[in-house]
Each structure stands twice: as structure tokens, then as C-alpha cells.
Amino acid sequence: MVQFSSVKRTINPIFFIALGLFGVYTIEFGVVGILPAIIERYSISTSQAGMLVGAFAIVIALFGPFMVLLLSKLNRKNVLMTCLFIFAGSSFLSAFAPNFYVLLALRMIPALFHPVYFSLAFVTAISLYAKEKATQASAKAFVGTSMGMVLGIPITTYIQHQFSFEAAFLFCTLVNIAAGIGIAIMLPKTPKAEKVTYGKQLGILRKIPLWINIGAATFIFAAMFSVYSYSAEYLEQVMGMNGETVSVMLVIFGVGGVAGNLLAGRLIGINMARTAVFQPIALALSYFLLYLRESSSIVPIILIMVLWGAVHTSGLIITQIWLTSEAPEAPEFATGLYISFINLGVFIGSAAGGMFINFLGVKGTIWSGLLFIVLALACIIIKIFLFNSKGIKEKRVSKRERREEALL
């Protein structure tokens, strides 16, 4: 018992919260890596298989805020565990789905609970730290999100090729079960949250600055996924890489993403407005470098992939904190709105990127991404100059506080 207690003290519950985020994002995006196997297994077209990704995002966009609102008054720890076991059950059944339409229906179940887990995960993570450490808590939780978004595809692809179609889904099952058990054991009982009425939560929809922030987040994700959705094709056709090299580059992209995510957590804690402006500008820079670099010289491409991964993934935490800072009275509902609109951004960006490819070739995705970056910057600048909210005030951090943060 003494040994178990010491283990419990050394493992931070935020690890399991992040593991759950990795699990759900691997469910959402990992299926892209096994689409060829799904097409062959169920004898369907590529466009039909694509519904597994598109429908998932649309369900989140349509139902996310309402699911979060509906479950906002329940015990957070219980809801987190329930969501994870629902994700695990859905993945397990998906491994043995008898036909494509059953698989598609099973995908809709985690899509409904995805925004619920996402919203409560960050509120819970922040509650584990002192108020001044909130952005660092979010950054640590976001490691799971970024890992799922950028490594979910190569991991499931590898498992499917090395083992089987079923093994790819069973991997997601095990990850979510482990996260659920970890939260059950390691997460302390959450204090009884203040019961915020549905009317008060819905009241944040009257805030004009919130809607400007929503616009910025949607456009940034449209910019991100205009290019990232076609990253493999871009690296193959423009950079001249083979499939194995592309997989390695996407892993490097993921490593850069984790580093960028943690750095962004610190920067946004120092000055939210400057960080919000800097991220889309840095993303545009990475796109210009991609556009100008056509040779397969390995070192420059590795550096570009690290930069691209860092600024792409940092968009997650920056847009989330930028948006939710405008509605501190209803953090779960605001985060539900966030997850819905960024998924709408994913859908819009992927569609726009495809349209630009039709007219301009694969490099057209860069111009699609730059268009949405301009729109996102316009929203951010309008917000900064027209509204004086606490979300844009500079937070000065002493050297001592920075040293304390570095120890976390």
C-alpha cells in the first residue's frame, strides 16, 4: 500500500488526461492512415471512405456545444472516465464491423463525446494547478492532442501494415482504457463545481468579442488543414520523397509540434495578444519556405518540417486560450464552442485546399492556407484594436516565477 501511494504521488494525473486526448485524436485522424485497407476490406470508393473523417468532424461541429452544455453539471471525473470507455468500446467494435455503414455509425459515437472530453479535460487540467500556472497546465494537456493529431496517422498505418486492420483499432481501444483507468485511480476527486445555469452559459453567445475570437480560431484551423490535409501528397509530388521518407518527415513534424506546443504555452502566459498575432505570421513563413523549397535536400527540409510542426501545433493551445479567455464564466461551454468551430475549420480548410489543387496543382494548397491566414489575422487585429478585454493585456512574469514554471 505504501509503495502504491508513492507511485500515485509521483505520477501526475495530467498524464492520463493527455493520454485520453491522444486516444480520441488518434480515433479521429488515425483512420486516415488505414483508408486504403478500409477501401479494400469493404469494397468502397475513396470518396465513401473519406466520409469517415468528414462525418466525424461535422458531427462535432453540429452537436459539440449542446453535448457539453447537457453534461456540464455532472461530476467531471465520472464524465471523463465514461467518455474514455465509450471511445474504447467504439474502437473495439469498429475492429470487427461487418460492413462500412456499421463502421461509419460506430464513428459517430466518439464524435458526439469528443467535445465533452476535450472541454472537461482542459478545465480539469487547469484545476490541478495554481491559477498563475493555467497556461502551463493547458500546454501539458495539449501534448496529448498534438501527438494524436500528428502521430495518429503514422502510428495506425504502421500497426495496420505490421499486424492487421483490427490491430489498428485495438490500439486505440487499449490507449483509451489505460487513460480511463489512470484517471479513475490517479485523478483526485474533483471539487464540486459551481453550478452555472444553462441561461448563464448561453449568455456568452451575446459577446461580440467571443465571436471574433471564434472567427480567428476557425480561420487558423482552415489555414492549417488546407495544407496539412495534403501534406503527404505535397512531400511526394513537390519534394520528390518516397512513402517511407514521408512517414519519417511526418514524425519529425510531430516532434516539432510537441516542442512548439510547450513553447506556446509559455509565450501566451507572458503576452496573449502578441502570441496570437505571431502564430499565423510564423505559419505563413513556414508555408512560404515549403513553397520555395522544391529540392529533396534533406537538412533544409528537416528544419522546415520542425518549424512547420511547431507553428502548426501551437495553433491548438493559442486559439483555445485566446477564445476561452473571453468567457471565463462558462469555460466548458466556451471550450465546446471552440472544438466545434475548429472542426468546422478543418472541414472548410480541407475542402478549400482540394479546390485550389484542382486549379493550381498541389502547390495551390499553400495559397489556400495563406488566404485563411490573412482572414485570421484580420479577426485578431480587429479584436485587439476594438475591444479592451483581459485576454489581450500583457501578463508580466518575474524571473522567479519563470524559474518556478521551468521546474514543473
Automatic annotation (TrEMBL):
Record carries keyword Transport: yes
Main localisation: membrane
Membrane topology, from the record: Multi-pass membrane protein
Segments passing through the bilayer: 12-39, 51-71, 83-106, 112-130, 142-161, 167-187, 208-228, 248-268, 275-292, 298-323, 335-360, 366-386
InterPro entries referenced in this protein's UniProt entry, alphabetically: MFS, MFS_dom, MFS_Efflux_Transporters, MFS_trans_sf
Coiled coil: none
Highest taxon of the lineage: Bacteria
Keyword list, A-Z: Cell membrane, Membrane, Transmembrane, Transmembrane helix, Transport
CDD domains listed in its UniProt record: MFS_NepI_like
Residue intervals of the Major facilitator superfamily (MFS) profile domain: 13-391
Keyword Mitochondrion on entry: no
Localization (cell): Cell membrane
Name of the featured protein: MFS transporter
Native organism: Paenibacillus spongiae
Biological classification of the source: Bacteria, Bacillati, Bacillota, Bacilli, Bacillales
